[in-house]
Write a structure and sequence with these properties.
Keywords: Membrane, Transmembrane, Transmembrane helix. This is DUF6536 domain-containing protein. It comes from Hortaea werneckii EXF-2000. InterPro entries: DUF6536. This protein is α+β, with helices and mostly antiparallel strands. It has a domain of 159 residues. It has 18 helices and 23 strands. The strands form six sheets. Strands 3, 4, 5, 6, 7, 8, 9 and 10 form an eight-stranded mixed β-sheet that branches. The protein has a six-stranded mixed β-sheet with strand order 1-11-2-17-18-14. Strands 13-22-20 form a three-stranded mixed β-sheet, with no helix packed on it. A hairpin with a 2-residue loop joins strand 4 and strand 5. Helix 3 packs across helix 16, helix 13 runs antiparallel to helix 17 and helix 16 runs antiparallel to helix 17. The two termini are 63 Å apart.
Length: 695
Amino acid sequence: MTETSAGTSNREKRRKLQGWRFGVAFSACTASGVLLLNTILTIYATVKFGSSGGISTPFDGDCERANAWTTGLHVLINGLSSILLSASNYTMQCLSSPTRTEIDRAHARGDWLDVGIVSVRNLWRINWRRTVLWWLLALSSVPIHLLYNSAIFKTVAANQFILVVANTNFLQGSEFAAYTQWNGSNPIPINAYMYPRVRDVQLQFSEHDNYTNGSKVHNLTTSECIISYGTPFLSEYRNVIAITSAPGNQTNNTVFSADLMSGTSGSDSYRWICRDTSTSYYGLECDMATVNTSNWTVAHYKIDYCLAQVAQPHCKLQFSVPIIATVIVMNACKCICMFLTLWTQRSTTLVTVGDAISSFLDQPDEFTKGRCLMAKTDLDRGFIGSRWSGTKCRPRTSPISYKGPARSRLFAGASVVRWCGTVGLCLTALITATLLLKIGMAHLKYSVDSAFKMGFGAVDSRALLNIHLPIRGSGGLLSAVLVANLPQAIISFIYLTYNGLFTSVCLAYEYSTYGLRERKKPLRVTTPHGQQRSTYHLQLPFRYAVPLLVASATLHWLISQSIFLVKINVSNYKGQELNRSSDASGLGYSCLPILLAILLGIAMLITVLGFGCRKLPSSIPVARSCSVALAGAAHRPKDDVDAAFLPVQWGEVRGEGTDEVGHCCFTSQEVHDLIPGRMYAGPANKPYDNGPDDQ
């Protein structure tokens, strides 16, 4: 007796985790694994490396190693975020799937529900508890995609620097009796603040002949000097002497101008380059394209070349504890919602098209009787108008003449709105990315080859965006994080629409295979009975779902390497690190991953368009995900009571209907091809009547 009870209990447990329940359980366990990994790594890193101001520093040293760690960790982050997105999407489809009771209620009032896809439309027509869980899963994805990729970032050094305009006598250690300091566009008298600093620069450049052997000082042409110092954040160099051939005089013996530049203040850091152009006079941002490199002047002295002091590269790998904590909380929210879905969802939901057909074959829908040739497009012509009439609707039975077999293309599997919306979003994203790539290339002023050699996510002081956002403190960090991750959120939304389109097309293909004459097929359902096939995937087969998930993860990673958060650690003109209040946050970009993301996006768009060009296997009316069209095709012969549990086909059933009007349906019995010119019960101008007078 005990063994029997145990066996019954085990069978009950297996039954509870069949079909979509198994999928949701797997999604919940996967999300829990991501949560556990995030939590363990965060606690470990915080305890081992400490935290200051919510920022922990696991690595401090060589920039190449920091780049490698950042790239690898972002591969992991984008893999985990894509897993969470996929798990959420699976559970959201299960939550938005209707029960048979909800479908019957909708049909009774002239409405319909979606089956087999993630449906926002269903949310206003299903149980409110499932709707709440659906929205919690959807909204919890937003902070993850807006923050997760910026949880880990690289910090680079940015240098303040002394700008000196001098002749070659300055390099020989000659005294400078007086000089002018530049402030905006007006020279001001020398003060004691700058004199010792200029003297420091003179000693640094003259000692050990640094300016001749090139070990610590680079000799730059005017063009190279403008490009190297024309950056919002200076990392590669520090102090610079702009050499002029102007002779000294009693007032200015060797030095003609000097100033301390922040090197970390956006466009203000390189405004001195345009000092003698109209840009400076009108207070405009420095446009280096207007600078004449062959006749470049600073402080009204023609510059022959520059001597730039080389700065030692120095980078940190850091992560934000508040950001990763927010991600962990949202991750936990997803896990709770998934487990609640398993715990609270007791009613049988129709998750796949097979579930819906099985239900309608088992209990035919009274409101769609006589609508065997109804397609989703027929509902678009008049059905919605009767929905809020307040009168119980009943179906028309006007027959139509069958014109002959016509196999539609898979484009018919989704509405024009869905196709245009998805393709339009994809094209908008691709065009925007292409324009940004063009702007980025122009801003770098590199050749195509050298720009792409910058690699993935590598921080270059010349590849930093200057978009007039706050750069200091927590406000600067938050602004940079949100802007850097906004493309991630947009791509996640586009992925969901793309996934929905692909799912709709695959649904139409599977549905159409039941119209083939080669053999009958058992229904693919989430909880199988009889000869029905079990399924763990929903409407999108694994052969499409897995490559789509990999493509999505790759696209997210490429975007994370295209535009990314950069923390700027400020050092003074001597190379000494300043306090945290001087640090800044910025946005870096890389051209190569932008190009690869564009190419991958084009490939994904071509794939779905090419798939849509294929013809459907049979000429069965395209029901899409519409419950009314599915129900209309499932009015089996009265004696075929077990059709739902047996292999079935769709076609004309002889002996049903009348001599004048034929009947088509899913059935386990023998079916025949439809006869062109014969009358069949099909869609009328208005699929539902509101009363007897309407007929």
